[in-house]
Here is the input.
Amino acid sequence: MLAAFAVLAIASCKKSKADSEPILTVETTPANKSNNLNILGPDFPLKVEITSAMPASGVKIEVTAAPEGSATTFFTATGNSTAQQNNYAISNTPSGLTCVVNITVSSLSQPTNVWRGTYRYSKK
Here is the structure.
């Protein structure tokens, strides 16, 4: 009887691990936490690549850009995706200011599975 209980307990543990999704991992170009100063514009490309397994329902990607120290964004993009690679063109960048880009990638099937990144740049 005790052996049967142990087998059931092990089987249920394995099932719960199989049901969880991998932690999101993401690579960005420009690189996460980088500083890219005095770049020519007018638009600035951003690549967001999901390097982990894609969640079953896909991901929600949110991108915002604002001058450093300001809560007023000049660029916002939000959307759902099932693609590993997602490309954006950040526009309306003010000249001569350091700007901060914040990127949030959230699993649509497990909303607590979130990746956050940021980088800085300035337009010449």
